[in-house]
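Last lecture ended with a question: if I hand you only a sequence, what can you say about the shape of the protein? Today we answer it with a concrete record. The protein is DUF6503 family protein. Below, first the input exactly as provided, then the predicted structure, then a couple of comments.
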Amino acid sequence: MKLLNHKPFSFSIPIILLMLHFNPLVAQESVVDKAIEVSGMEKMKNAEASFTFRKHTYSYQRQNGQFTYIRIGKNKHGGLVRDVFTNKGFIRYIDDTVAPITEERKNAYTNSVNSVMYFAFLPLWLKDQAVVLENKGTTSIKGKEYHKIRVIFKKEGGGVDYEDVFLYWFDVEDYSMDYLAYTYFTGKGGMRFREAYNQRTVNGVTVQDYRNLQPKIKDGVPFEQIEKAFENGKLEELSIIELKNVKISTLPKI
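The predicted structure:
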């Protein structure tokens, strides 16, 4: 899953709306800018947050580009495991003692913690400097019209899985991010399609859960049109992505 670049974000909202008809890049960035604005995710650039996901407790702190992500759980022996990912790297603690781990395991744990944060606070990360946006026009899902935005990543700053491809669907009326999908190539590869539900606001920030789906038949769905497969019943539920006990507080920008 995509490792966050953590570089400063920049925004470019067009002043002259007519530019949208002549400059596709402005159009797609305008859609993402608006989605970030209405979701309140701008606040997460300088904020603290906590939530539970499955059997783990997560905490998020980000201020002036410095971040600390923590995952707390228990191992099979009942020991308290604390994974800490910061700008300086990753450390695993077991009962407050630094645990020796291989580089492979370190990368896997880093990726795991980071991916949870990535999905929890979308669409904020879509203005990362490694992101390349492409406007795919509008499409209809369940009778509603959506802006369809395709995302790929630059090799530099795009993480070890920079070849992953994402699709996002934003409501043309209120810019809510109701669906997303991605195709990945690590391991055996595959596709996922996520349908948002239980949308709620926590301290001005929109948080939502997802139904996580996959194609019923491997390689039987064209990724670029995966929303059509969803509507035609060609996807099956794989899991539920549910964040519980979400708390968010903003921090001052120093």
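Comments.
1. Confidence is low (pLDDT under 50) at residues 5-23.
2. The first strand starts at residue 47 and ends at 53.
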